[in-house]
Each structure stands twice: as C-alpha cells, then as structure tokens.
Amino acid sequence: MFNKLSLVLKSSALVVSILTGSAMAQSGFPDKSLHIVVPQPPGGGFDLVGRVLADKLAPIMKESFIVENKPGVGTVVGTDYVAKQPADGYTAVVGSISNIVMNPWLYKNLPYDPIKDFVPVGLVTSYSYTLIGRKGLPFNDLKGLIKYAQDNPGKLTYASGGNGTGQHVLAAALWKNAGVDCVHIPYKGAQAAYTDIIGGRVDLFFDLSPTAKPHIDSGSVVTFATSGSTRNPNLPNVPTVIETGVSNIQLESWFGLFLPAKTPAAIVTKWQEAFSQVANQAEVKDRFEKAGGKPIAPSPAEVKNIVQNDYNRWKQLISAANIKAD
C-alpha cells in the first residue's frame, strides 16, 4: 500500500513539475526590464560583451535591457551581487575566465562559488590577451623583455585592471614561469591602466586583445606577444608567447552570461534559446571578430564542460605560481 501511495505521490509531483515549467515558459517572462551586470568599469572587454549582448537580446526577449557596471575587488563585487539576487531570471552577470574560473583560487574567502552559485546561459566570444608596453622601453621583443627583467629584478612594472583579473593572473604566471620579478600595479579597470601606460608611468600591460588593439593601431604602445594557442588574426605579425620560446603558457578568455543557479529551468532555457540566436547572428560574429575576438556558440552542455575544464586547469597554474589576489 505504501509503495503504491509513494508511486502516486511521485507521479503527481512530476506532473506538477512539468506543468509548472510549462506555465513558467508561457507566463509572459520577461514582463519587465532585464539587467546585465558587468563586474568591471566601462570600456573593457567585459563591458563590450555586456553591451553587445544587451543590444541584440532586447528584440528577441521583447524587453529592454539595463547594463550596469559594478566594479570592485577585481570582478568579485559585481559577480557576488548577481549570485545573491533573486533567482527570477531578471539579472545576469557577464562571466569570464577571471570571475568564473580563477577567483576561487585567488581569494581565501570568496563570497560566492562560481560552480554552485551560477548556471551558464552561454558563451559568445573568446579573446586572447596581448602583452603591450610603454614606448621607450630598452627592448623590442619578449625575449629581450625577459632578459632585461632577469638583469634588473623588480625594476619593470606591469598593470592590471585589478587584483585577481585575468590581466593580473596571466602576467604573474608568465613572470613566474620565466623566472623573473616584475612589480604588479593594480588599477580600477583597464582604462585607468591605459592612461598610465601611454603616459609612461607603468611599463607593461597584458590586456585583452580587443581593448589593446586601438592603442596598438594608434602606435601609442609597443607590442610583444599574444596569449592564444595560435596568432591573433587581427595581429598577424605578433607572435604568441609559445612561439617566442619564453614559456608554454597560453590563455584565451571566453565571455558569456550566467544566471543565479536556482533560476527555474524554464527561464534558463528561454535565456539560452535567445542567447543562441544572438551568438549565431552574422552581425554579432563580425562585431567580435573586428574587436579581435573569436566568435563561439557552444551548447549549454559544452559550456559546462569548458567551465569545469578551465576551472581545474587554472587551479593548478595559479597554485604553481603562488598567485594571490588578497
């Protein structure tokens, strides 16, 4: 008798779950403005992705989008803000390798868990980083830079958009791997770093290629290497770090959107379907390619695998380099 009752209850619960999901999918969501939180200041790679996605998602989801920059503690403040928002599907965060993969290994008391607290909507582009320097440095390639740093420990400075950002971690891992000592100068975002590197007040910056490219094109900085596994098609004459023989480190930072983990499945699916349409638009692909990115559109299952694999890989790299953000 109890087994029959249990079966009836389980069947009823399944029916309720299916009906609830179906009702939510047809309930009119969204029926108010949606928010995309950018956990970095305006002007950088996070900001570009957030604003392109908001612009293209709005007509598909038939609601307006508000893009809100919430910088602080690298990418922690804005990411944690979204993790603690109501899981109603109205607030997403721009996620990248820094705030979704690296932060757990950089901060002792990270207030969110990127694997447990977020569900991926999708990834839309990946970028290599480009190592640039101020004009007037006494070397013109990466091998020369490393030789100078070996002969002058602690003399070279390098910028980042904040402790724990991809700019910080990638550069620190490179210096560690090459056996040199450079001094980290964290800024509140990429634009402040560019002001000082162009002004000659900081020496080096390993920034995302799309935000570095306008400064490279204008001739206001010099260029040493890119971080991808292959050369950046927008910088065909710039070797990869691996090509220079200095280190085998490579990184391409993916970008996309993530929702609070407890967001109902029907709402997550609605986001994912809209996101997939945007990621596959020729105009969007062209926009990111021109910005120096590689357009991508992995399935939700593939996104989970990408995140988990990078999560494990960078745990090892950050631990080996003994990098801490706090």
Describe the structure.
The chain is 46% helix and 19% strand. It has twelve helices and ten strands. The N terminus is likely disordered.
Distance between the termini: 59 Å
SS element count, helices: 12
CATH class descriptor of the largest domain: Alpha Beta
Give the integer mean of the pLDDT values.
89
Set down the secondary structure blueprint:
Blueprint: H1 2-25, E1 34-38, H2 45-61, E2 65-69, H3 76-83, E3 91-96, H4 97-106, E4 118-133, H5 142-151, E5 157-160, H6 166-178, E6 183-186, H7 190-198, E7 204-208, H8 209-217, E8 222-226, H9 241-244, E9 252-260, H10 265-279, H11 282-290, E10 293-295, H12 300-321
Parallel strand pairs: 1-2, 1-3, 5-6, 5-7
Antiparallel strand pairs: 3-9, 4-7, 4-8, 4-9, 4-10
Helix pairs in contact: 1-10, 2-10, 4-12, 6-12
Descriptive key words:
D-Maltodextrin-Binding Protein, domain 2, 12 helices, alpha/beta, 326 residues
Task: Give the gist of this structure.
This protein has helices at residues 2-25, 45-61, 76-83, 97-106, 142-151, 166-178, 190-198, 209-217, 241-244, 265-279, 282-290, 300-321; strands at 34-38, 65-69, 91-96, 118-133, 157-160, 183-186, 204-208, 222-226, 252-260, 293-295. It is an alpha/beta fold and 326 residues long.
